[in-house]
Specification:
4-stranded antiparallel beta sheet; alpha+beta; 200 residues; single chain; 28% helix; 8-stranded antiparallel beta sheet; 26% strand; elongated
Amino acid sequence: MRAKMLEIKTKGKKPAKKTKNRTGFKRIFSGAFNWLLLIFVAIVAGYSLVTFCVQTITVIGPSMNGTLADGQVVFVNKLYYKFNDVERYDIVAFSLVESNDYYDIKRVIGLPGETISIKEGMVYINNQPLGTSVIEEKILTAGIAKNEIKLGANEYFLLGDNVNNSEDSRYTNIGNVSSAEILGKVFYIWSPKESRGKLK
């Protein structure tokens, strides 16, 4: 009888080992699945952030010198103008319809419905001088703004801060920029590191 009882007890221990192995496998599988899920969520979140919220753009050329320099990388808030109006002096990234693979950066000077002109080196809005709060230099080239320009309901007049070395709304190849062509508001310099900071 004792021998039989010992035999039964010994047999009863073997299934417990199999259960333990299965539990360990489940834990490993569950841990791996959680990591894969986390990586997938991070990729989707990163893609969504770049596609719908924020995008980096590299500044090309000297047209924004004084505020931005050639080669700097900036962040553009692509959602900002979904909830806010474009305001005078905002720095925006835009792309003309015919060249939507390239983004340029300029400052908003004229707003929808306004009349813009450049006379004697100064910007006039609705026949009133803009002042020198942003544009400190005398503008040497008025371009098409030598005659009054009436902005449409969704049009903006943009200038580079380096007004005498900037291709902007004064030139026919750019002209008035529509709200549909504006990617978003430039709000932060990311690199180089020594220039990193929020734009005012």
